[in-house]
Design goal:
By secondary structure, the chain is mainly alpha-helical. The chain folds into two domains: about 50 residues, no CATH class; about 140 residues, Serine Threonine Protein Phosphatase 5, Tetratricopeptide repeat (Alpha Horseshoe). Helices cover about 80% and strands about 0% of the residues. It has twelve helices and no strands. It is elongated, with a radius of gyration of 21 Å.
Length: about 210
C-alpha cells in the first residue's frame, strides 16, 4: 500500500512536469515550484512528527515508514505481542550502539517490559544527566513503590508528570486513575511522543489484569 502511494505521488509529480512542459512554463518557474513543493512536503512531515496533535495523521506517517526501527517499535506496541516489542527494542539498541543515552533508554524500556525493575533502575542511573535520565529514574522509582521519590524528580515536559502518575496508579491497581493520567499525558504531548503515549495507554488497558 505504501509503495502504491509513493508511485502515485511520483506519477502526480511527473504529470505536473508534463503540464508545465506542454504550457512552455519557463524552467526557472518550474524549478521554483518543485522547490517550494519539496519544502512544503518536508515541512508538513516535520510538523506532523514533532508538533501535531492529530494522532491519526502521525500514525499514517508511522505506517508509511514502518521500516524505520523507531516507528516499527511503536507499531509493535500498538499491534504486536510482547515478543514483537522486545525484538523491536533489540534492533533499536543495536542501531544506537554508538549513542550512549539513546541505547540506554531503549535498554531501560526493554528491562521494564521484561519486568526487570532493578535492572531498569541501574540503567537509568547510568545515563547522562538530562531530561531522559530524570524521567527514567522517576519511572524506576515509581515501579519500586517509592512514589514520593518519583514525584520529586524534575520533569522537563508536562506530559512526563502525568505519565509517572499513571505508573503509580498502575502499581496501585487503580485502572480508572491510570487511564485518566495517561489521557492527560497524551493530551499534553505532541508528535511522535503523543502517539507513543496513546499506544502505550491502549496496550496497558488491553493487558490489564
Amino acid at each position: 500500500m505504501n509503495i502504491l502511494k509513493l508511485l502515485l505521488f511520483y506519477v502526480i509529480i511527473l504529470g505536473i512536469g508534463g503540464i508545465f512542459t506542454w504550457l512552455n512554463v519557463p524552467t526557472t518557474y518550474s524549478l521554483l515550484f518543485f522547490i517550494f513543493l519539496a519544502i512544503a512536503v518536508v515541512g508538513y512531515y516535520a510538523y506532523t512528527m514533532t508538533a501535531s496533535k492529530k494522532t491519526n495523521a502521525i500514525l499514517r506517517q508511522v505506517r508509511f515508514q514502518k521500516s524505520n526501527p523507531i516507528y516499527a517499535h511503536i507499531l509493535a506496541i500498538k499491534e504486536g505481542t510482547k515478543e514483537d516489542e522486545i525484538e523491536a527494542l533489540d534492533k533499536l539498541i543495536k542501531k544506537n550502539k554508538n549513542n550512549h543515552d539513546g541505547r540506554m533508554d531503549y535498554e531501560f524500556q526493554r528491562a521494564v517490559r521484561l519486568g526487570d525493575f532493578a535492572g531498569a533502575k541501574k540503567i537509568a542511573d547510568s545515563m547522562k544527566n538530562g531530561p531522559l535520565k530524570s524521567y527514567n529514574q522517576a519511572y524506576a522509582e515509581a515501579l519500586a513503590g517509592k512514589y514520593g521519590v518519583a514525584r520529586n524528580k524534575p520533569f522537563y515536559q508536562s506530559w512526563m508528570k502525568h505519565s509517572i502518575e499513571a505508573v503509580i496508579a498502575k502499581k496501585q491497581n487503580n485502572k480508572e486513575r491510570y487511564q485518566s493520567e495517561m489521557e492527560q499525558a497524551v493530551e499534553e504531548s505532541k508528535g511522535i511522543q503523543r502517539l507513543t503515549n496513546q499506544v502505550t495507554l491502549e496496550k496497558t488497558l488491553k493487558e490489564w489484569k
